[in-house]
Amino acid sequence: MAQSTETTDWVSRFADEVIEESERRAPGKPVVVASGLSPSGPIHLGNLREVMTPHLVADEIRRRGYQVRHLISWDDYDRYRKVPAGVAGVDESWAEHIGKPLTSVPAPRGSAHPNWAEHFKAAMIESLAELGVEFDGISQTEQYTSGAYREQILHAMKHRGDIDAVLAQYRTKPKPADQKKQQAKQKPVDEAELEAAEGSGAAAEDDGSSGTGGYFPYKPYCGNCEKDLTTVTTYDDDSTELTYACTACGFSETVRLSEFNRGKLVWKVDWPMRWAYEGVVFEPSGVDHSSPGSSFQVGGQIVGIFGGKQPIGPMYAFVGISGMAKMSSSRGGVPTPADALKIMEPQLLRWLYARRRPNQSFKIAFDQEIQRLYDEWDRLDAKVADGSALPADAAAHSRAVRTASGELPRTPRPLPYRTLASVADITAGHEDQALRILSELDPANPLASLDEARPRYDRAEAWINTHVPADQRTVVRAEPDAELLKSLDEQGRESLRLLLDGLAEHWSLDGLTHLVYGVPKVQAGFSADATPKELPPEIKTAQRSFFALLYHLLVGRDTGPRLPTLLLAVGQDRVRTLLGE
Ligand SMILES: [Zn+2]
């Protein structure tokens, strides 16, 4: 089942290109694709595209029998830039660590992890496992502090003049695009703010500083205060002796770069160095990288200094989130992949990425839209099952449900998400009730246990509990609305009578659907089986007012979950009571 889906979608076309390019650059070697993530705080759901794009391509290449390494570079040796708002266990006292490597900042209080970076990496690693993303994680702290990049650092220092010349082409130009790139790559977005606050030279963060001793693409972390507010003052190519001074604490020392491991190349040099070091053939980046002066473009000019080549790098468009803004701002946090996986199965999330080309933007729904999305997914699933799906749709489906190493665990009985959400809404945590209702959906084939509907049921329940505002939750009336019942005219009373008379016989999802749509037809003198073509348009109006009446009597509002589901959820006895029998 894990066979290739050759050239039917954007993923396979990229796979063709990447395999060909890898064979040209490094014949017989595993194909290398890469992503970069900065654990500077909770990793935003929008940044998942940075991982999913190369993941899907890598997976297609694996399906074709090639060896692939998907590197995720954890930029955990980057400086801590600011204290993110709304993170539990963190207060303003964390500001004293600004300027240190992310791995030298304490984890939030109560965390089981040794430092800031590890804390936020752990959450992402867990989500990636759930999503079936296979990768090699590379800690940049480990790489730099172990001296893995020693040769590359010395090489960059030796060729600092060449690097400076490349960067100089862009220095005089305004750099708005570059700040956006930072966003796309999960790099800091508040560069201007920081520079103003810390008084460092413009572009120093990205490019390296031009101090009195000239330009240096390398920055040490201070030996006394651990911050990166250092300036290299002298460097000797022969002895590799480097002197730096710290503007934060005044500390200064001279070290030998051939044996010193506490510093890093500046970002615009660091990135292309790693392309060369790892032999990266494919690494996507945010859409703003198309502008001249962006680190992807500049990297393309610098990578040659390290003897490497720029990867194939599709620009990916922004992924938005709908329905989370209000919730997250009240909580102060950001939506993470873990938040999405609480309300949707990994297959659905994978599908959202697989079905859109990287340059198409889309939204991940935390609002009512998720129900429509699930309906669409179930329809596709059915088409794939009966062989009627279009090739590109079938390819996206295949990428969603399995990887080269096998199927993702799926819900044994994938009942409609909106039904599960309604049942969870109405039963409010009473699992026995939920099981009863779900079994009545299809009485001929009842559920043996709620587990058959899991994990989809749990996702729908989490969605109802965390993303549906209280005023949209369904509260079944405790007592009949005597006043409304008394005010009904003859037609209103008859409609309820017809419904109640058919209730026992139609007690299933399909049966009740037929019944609630049929009552207004029968009242107007047509058969309950009459199709829309055989009916006058007024029937629709009659159906709408009948449904509104039922909602009022059952839940005291104009609308609610789909009626057949609501009726099953409320239960036959209580329906009879509330409808005045
Ligand atoms: Zn210092």
Please describe the structure with a list of short key phrases separated by commas or semicolons.
single chain, 581 residues, mainly alpha, Rossmann fold, Arc Repressor Mutant, subunit A, 2 domains, 3-stranded parallel β-sheet, 3-stranded antiparallel β-sheet, 25 helices, elongated, binds zinc ion
Briefly note the structural class of the backbone.
mainly alpha
Give the helix proportion (percent range). Answer: 40-55%
Unreliable runs, pLDDT <50, ≥5 residues?
1-5, 175-184, 186-205, 328-332
Estimate nothing, just give the exact number of structural domains: 2
CATH superfamily of the largest domain: HUPs
Principal-axis shape equals elongated
Radius of gyration: 30 Å
What's the mean pLDDT score? 90
Name the hetero compounds present: zinc ion
What do these coordinates show?
Helix content is 46%, strand content 11%. The protein has two domains: 1-410, Rossmann fold; 482-578, Orthogonal Bundle (Arc Repressor Mutant, subunit A). α14 crosses α16 (391-401), α17 crosses α19 and α22 (509-523) crosses α24. It is elongated. It is mostly helical. The chain has 25 helices and 16 strands. The two termini are 55 Å apart. A three-stranded parallel sheet has the order 1-2-3. The protein has a three-stranded antiparallel sheet with strand order 7-8-9, with no helix packed on it. It has a two-stranded antiparallel ribbon with strand order 4-5. Zinc ion (ZN) binds at residues 222, 224-225, 227, 246, 248-249, 251.
